[in-house]
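Researcher: Here's my situation. A collaborator sent me these components and asked whether they could plausibly form a single complex. I don't have experimental data yet, so a predicted model of the whole assembly would be a useful starting point for our discussion.
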Amino acid sequence: NAGVTQTPKFQVLKTGQSMTLQCAQDMNHEYMSWYRQDPGMGLRLIHYSVGAGITDQGEVPNGYNVSRSTTEDFPLRLLSAAPSQTSVYFCASRKAQWFPNEQFFGPGTRLTVL
Amino acid sequence: QQQVKQSPQSLIVQKGGISIINCAYENTAFDYFPWYQQFPGKGPALLIAIRPDVSEKKEGRFTISFNKSAKQFSLHIMDSQPGDSATYFCAARGNTGTASKLTFGTGTRLQVTL
């Protein structure tokens, strides 16, 4: 049981480039989400999904796209990277969207946009 | 708009001492309050959580105190150890339409010295 996995661990992009951050979980969790973590700002929700085929915006969705074609995978796409998207990105999942189901986080992807 | 305010930003405690981290929230509809622990290079992990119908919850050396009328809650780490050195985030759960989301505090970096 690998839990929540994320790839890559580190990435450097140039402004305007696009890329996809991968996230997968093997716990058959319905709910998956993406956060970004910036110094002094905690974790902010980017997008989330309550099940395959269902996604919605979080607190800071601009510049990011997501899709959920399978229960296991929830990729985050940066369409045209900007320096403001330099951050550490965490994927998270939980069994169902309602609490108190425990939310598990992946190890993160550190992204730098030059 | 910071709905969950966390303090202090950083904290240095001697081994064996008590670490106290405070959080305050604004939204009275929040109904689940978890604390996460994050070690460098890792994703956050659930440490302990409380519902607003109880005033205190203890798990080992970790205790949450909850004051519903003041809209405040705090994490107490008794007999702090160097292995407790990490960043701690408080969070609060709120429902928005069909979704259940966590709002995080800005984090407290705890250093426990020998």
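Model: Some features of this prediction you could bring to your collaborator: DSSP finds no helices and eleven strands in chain B. The first strand of chain B starts at residue 4 and ends at 7.
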